[in-house]
Every structure is written in structure tokens, then in C-alpha cells.
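Marked as duplicate of an earlier ticket. Keeping the data here for the record.
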Amino acid sequence: MIINTAFARRLSSRRGIAVWISSHRCVSAVLLALSLHATALAQTGAPAPAQAPAPLQIPGVTSRAPAGPGAVAPAAPTNAAPVANSVSAPSGYQLSANDQIAVEVFGEDDLRAAVRLTGDGSASLPLLGAVRLGGLTLAQATSRLTELYARDYLVNPRVSVALIGYAKQRFTMLGQVNRPGSYEMPEGGGGGVDILEAVAMAGGYTRIAAPERISVRRRGPNGDEVIRVNAKRLAKQAGGGGFRVQPGDTITVGESIF
């Protein structure tokens, strides 16, 4: 009985040692795993910071994220429409009723405008209201608007004025042409149309026409004036033509005597 008790104590002691060794191994394994995990983190870098939750979207309300260090403010929206392409205007062209122009002020999108001149040559512009521009060249119109904006509203404004559409202007062909009547000036014809082209638009001469006897009635500052034109001679010149028909002109082709 004594032997069995001693043996049991020895066996129990051995089991305790085995349990201690087993638990020591588990602790060592855990410590080793933690060490390997720390090494992996050091090699790959710190974990990415958690992203902020998306802002709550409420219909009809525009949410704004709080400004942080280095944050860039969004660009302010603009309601200004792009300006249409300008057309080529002849040197010294003077604006007239129904011409369409584009006005821009650098850095001031709210002042951008594309307007058509009224019957008296006025343009309705932001801040300025109605401004008379009829009879001015594009350079003169630019100087005029620059002066007006600088007078009461802006400091050193940079204004540009461009022609984007001619008024629908007409001339009249009478006499010995095949299709007498009123004709629109061609697109880009702000500087007039060649008289030979005007005759062609009216169907050309009749068989009894006298191209050397053409009269042009034109309204001038001092009333109507009549200009005599020898289109037969012009047609023989190098390049042809040379006389320009202006909007509002009335051209009469004479009849041959023989």
C-alpha cells in the first residue's frame, strides 16, 4: 500500500511537470506569434487610417465636408454661358442696329453678355444698362465700355468686344437684271458686296442691259447721293470688280440705247 502511494505521488509529480511544460510551450508560441506580427507590421507600414463616414445626403441640401489642414475649397459655380464664336469684321467696321456682339470683362463672369443692338444702336449690358454703341468701331466700343465700367464699378477692367453676327441687311437691284428685287447681304458682308457679285445674285444682266450705265443711290449723312458706276470697265480690270455695294443701296442697271 505504501509502495502504491509513493508510485502514485511520483506519477502525479510527472504529470504536473508535463502540464507545466505544455503550458510553457503554449505561452512561448503566443509570444512568438506576437513577435512575428509586430515584425510584419514594421515592414509593411502602419495600417491605413479609418475613412470618415460619408456625409448624410438630404434632398435639396448640399452638404459640405469640414475643412481640414490642406483642404482645397471647391470652385465656385458659374452661370455664365460660353460666348459664341466671333466673326471676322472688316477693318474700321462700324456697329449698327441689329448687329450681335459679345462683351467680356476679364475675371467677371457675371458681366459676360451676348446681345443684339436695338434699332437705335444701343446694347443692354449688366450694371451699365442701355449703352449706345451704334456707329462705333469695335475698338471704340471697347474703350467706351472700359471707361464706363471703370467709372463706377471696377478697378482697371479688361474689356473685350467681339462681333458675333451681322444684322440682316439688304440692298435692292432694279433695271435690266433678270431678277429685280431686294437681296440680303452675304454672311460676313459687313464691308459690302462687290457690284459684279450683286448683279450675279440678281440673275445677271438682261440682253438689253448697259453695264456701263449703272447708278447707285446711297443714303449719306447729308441725304441721298447718286453714284455712277461703269461695271463693264470694272469687269475688265485685273481681279474684276472694285466697287462695293453697301447695305441699303439701290442699284439700277441702265438699258442699252442700241
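See parent ticket for discussion. The chain is about 30% helix and 25% strand.
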